[in-house]
Amino acid sequence: MSRTAQKGQGQWALGYREPLNPNERMKKDSDGLDVRQRILDIYAHTGFDGIDPGDLRGRMRWMGLYTQRAQGIPGGKTAVLEPEELEDAYFMLRVRIDGGQLSADQLRVIAGISTEFGRGVADVTDRQNVQLHWIRIEDVPEIWRRLEAVGLSTTEACGDTPRVILGCPLAGVLDDEVLDATPAVAEVVEKYLGDREYSNLPRKFKSSISGCAHHCTNHEINDVAFVGVRNAAGEAGYDLWVGGGLSTNPRFAERIGVFVRPDQVADVWAGVCAVFRDYGYRRSRTHARIKFLMADWGPEKFRQVLQDEYLHEALPDGPAPARPATDQRDHVGVMKQVDGSNALGFALHTGRIGGELLGTVADIAEQYGKGRIRTTADQKLVVLDVPDEQVEDAVAALAAHDLLVRPSVFRRQTMACTGIEFCKLAIVETKGRAKELTAELERRLPDFDTPVTINVNGCPNSCARFQTADIGFKGMVVGGEEGFQVHLGGHLGFESSIGRKLRGHKVAATDTADYVERVLRGYLEHRTEGESFAAYATRADEEWLR
């Protein structure tokens, strides 16, 4: 791409700093971080109707706040109505949980906020956060006070910012990890969370820093990812990946080809973020993610610009990550910790748990462990530090609340986004439908034991990663009713692939269980020895898959 063409994309580094769209104008008028003080001083007192529109639909995201969808508006109206017609006078509030690390006290605070201010609703997301709903702007100052008193925050949980830093929930716990990335995650958060140098990016910026041997933070689809490796000298460090992301233009991240020492991670992370800030495309929102810059530049140019203009030093070449220990990245089950105790990972129903039950999890974590809880990048939770002799009692205590350490394949492998219940972008209901689908498949295929991921998404934006699931459902209107477009055979790992879209193939929401049952029975009938569903779906005759 010529420099003229690049300049036309609104890259700051090439002198093009004018506001290029309403979002860029909004950020130029006032940094998103400025909205915090207006919430405290003004909006908490005036209420919803007193909020400036630029803050309401823009800057409040910098504080983790999105207006939620008004109840009863069908999916067919999603792209038709104006934002003020779609939104309710309540907010979704996202609590960022960097590295997925929580104490029982922190979880109890979140639980209390959910029950007292959020009608008891809470969702564990596939980016290790907890989302609350039904939040009134008048209650936000008190909610922040409670969160910050236990070291939690909603700062930059949304918006054109560096969002939560993903980390392995079992960092420092499992003995097969390459290295413990907890200090690196903490350093990046300490140095750069809320830093105005990085609070106006072209779009969202998603990060992963992990030494997990299972690659549980899905480095392939993050804007920037540090993946644990060992170099030729046996030194543990990180392989740098840049430019991953899904949504309507899915693209896998690429290796930059460098070896990053643990003490370099924060500087390299800031350098990548700054490259995006200065060279990222700001003219069009749909072209503003770092994956588009990476597609034009390639890893060689990206490395050169990063080193020459931002790090001012060359990074050594480094090795690629080892093959993951397993394709199961969710850390569900009983896992032996390096100290001899056990971690218990358990499946929720597509991330939905509720405030009261979060409090129960905190109690169980203290009763059977040391009060340490972790969130995963697959909408799961993990309780740490359970002694051998208490494992079965703890498993039973969780199961009494339908929190399953040994779930069915379908319960374990199904995810769903927020959906039309609360999301203004959604076209269909997701969490309830996914829960019903899980129950139906457990009833119809009780002996099915091959891992198959089923991801249910309410719109094309892929918050639930439908393109990388074995069976991915993308919400749409089918014949005037809720339905899905089907994607098959998506996979993350050494054979990463985007799911195969069957041309013109759509499934009514009421028919999803019938469809999945047919496809899985076809897989059992036609698969070869040891063949995964993703491999089968890639080669299978299209009629088998319909």
Automatic annotation (TrEMBL):
Cofactors (names): [4Fe-4S] cluster
Annotated spans, Disordered: 1-29
PROSITE patterns membership: NIR_SIR
Residue intervals of the Nitrite/sulphite reductase 4Fe-4S domain: 158-312, 412-545
Molecular functions per Gene Ontology: sulfite reductase (ferredoxin) activity
Pfam families assigned: NIR_SIR, NIR_SIR_ferr
EC number: 1.8.7.1
Chemical reaction(s) catalysed: hydrogen sulfide + 6 oxidized [2Fe-2S]-[ferredoxin] + 3 H2O = sulfite + 6 reduced [2Fe-2S]-[ferredoxin] + 7 H(+)
Domain Nitrite/Sulfite reductase ferredoxin-like: 87-150, 336-400
Keyword Oxidoreductase: yes
Keywords (A to Z) from UniProt: 4Fe-4S, Heme, Iron, Iron-sulfur, Metal-binding, Oxidoreductase, Thioether bond
Family statement drawn from the similarity comment of this UniProt entry: Belongs to the nitrite and sulfite reductase 4Fe-4S domain family.
Function: Catalyzes the reduction of sulfite to sulfide, a step in the biosynthesis of sulfur-containing amino acids and cofactors.
Protein name: assimilatory sulfite reductase (ferredoxin)
Organism: Klenkia sesuvii
